Amino acid sequence: MIRKVKLFTFLISILFLSALPSYASSTYVLPYPSTMPGSIFYKIHLVEETVLRYWYFGDFGQFTYNLKESDKYLVEAKTLFEYNQYLLGYEALKKSDVYFSKTLPYLLKAQKQGKDISANRDLLSQAALKHKEVLLTVKQEVPPVFNWTPEKSALTVLNLKAAIDASIAIRDKYL
Amino acid sequence: MKKMFLGVYSIFLVCLAIFSYAFVDPNLLFLRKLYTGLYATNRPFVTLAFIFLVLIFFGFYTLFLYWFRQKVFGNNEFKFILISTVVFLFLAYPAMVSYDIFNYVATAKALFFYHENPYIIMPIQFLHDPLLLFMQAANKTALYGPFWIFLTGIPYLSGFGNFAVTLFAFKLFNTIFYLASIALLYKMSKNIYYLSFFAFNPLVIFETLVSSHNDIVMMFFAILTIYFLKNKKLILSIILIILSILIKYSTVFLLPVILYAMFYQLRNKKLEWEKIFLWFSISMLVIFLLSQIREEIYPWYAIWFLIFLPFIRNKLIKYIYLSFSFGLLFRYVPFMLLGTYFGTTPLIKNFMTFIPVGVTILFLALKKFIWQKSSNRF
To answer: Cβ contact (<8 Å) for A55 and B114?
Structure first.
């Protein structure tokens, strides 16, 4: 009987612990939030982003650029979600995904050219882990679906949960 | 007698070139056979030898200046000294007291070999690159201007991927700019005595022909700017000063004087070029002294104002510049002896730099005072 109780307690504990939200943890540091949409400086940042795309030439350069921009848009998305700006947050998250998915191909291209990519590969894994950590936090705070109805425009259904899951899946591939 | 003296000078240059190899880095694989460990194990001896060589170098310099002034030496001797200095010191080990040449190679390699932006990507990011074994600033992105990086494509690509050839191609590249600067200064000054003040200055020779610093390239474009400015080719001079600034930025301090001279040239007003040159040199002396705020005064920065020596007639300024060039070469001594950049090293370095200048000013002031006193007596 005592054995059965012990086994039952153990199983319950396992179930209880697995139900707790688990967070990935990484020492990778994300940037501070930059200017937000609506600010005049945001437009300047968009121009800067386009110019920097050419300044960061080379495979390592493009890797750095894409990761930097991905980080920036992830932080932007998180901040916008916190302020219930779901449409803008959703768009920022999509941009972060696009930039993030471009990082590894540049590293592989660099590897083909004989460059040692191990340090940058580690950096990317750390970044993916950190991004996932942030995304899991955001996922708990946003509604799964949000209907965005702007003035004089059609309704937009934002499937936030699915979008965040897709973002996590992109990061998982690069872990 | 003259021939014998020039022969002794050539022997001295050979000794200096051989001595430079005492500083070979043990990780520099292509020079491993020449590594003696002398500098690592016999710091006091190497330091004393360095002091001795610098003193001899200044001794030769003083005699050259004296004989050029007395017209004992003429054009032929000038050419002989110039050629022998260039040829023998071309063979010297370039990273004797400064590792900047490795930074030049690494930056060029980042762009021309790895096709990466050296302003974004640091050499340390190219793991397992052989340069990382011995270069000292692997964790820094490019420090120099884009025009310099563009120019380094010439010596880098001339090396065909061989490090030793590339290293000496960089030396040759800077040597060509040294010779071009001498030729240009001669064209402007038409006087080999005044030209010798710059051309045979031990600091200029050491930092340009041994350590191969790019300051000579920046100053060549600055002098070329002034040459075209004097000839009223203003657009060309604007382009050239921009190129000079895009090498190492410091010549931006020449802009106020250049704009002043341009203004006068446009109005066809007569310019006192002696004064203009003096102001050019003082502008560069100011930025030289201000470099202490940014990091520290490096000996090769003196090339910025020393290049104007052939045009300076003001004795006080000339002696101050010469005493700077004397003291600056001794800035290497504390590190050479103690092997550390910390502790008393920075203080001793500053003493080495400014004491010769202070002594010179004091000496000139006393001389003037005594002379005035004795002339009042009569």
So the answer is: no
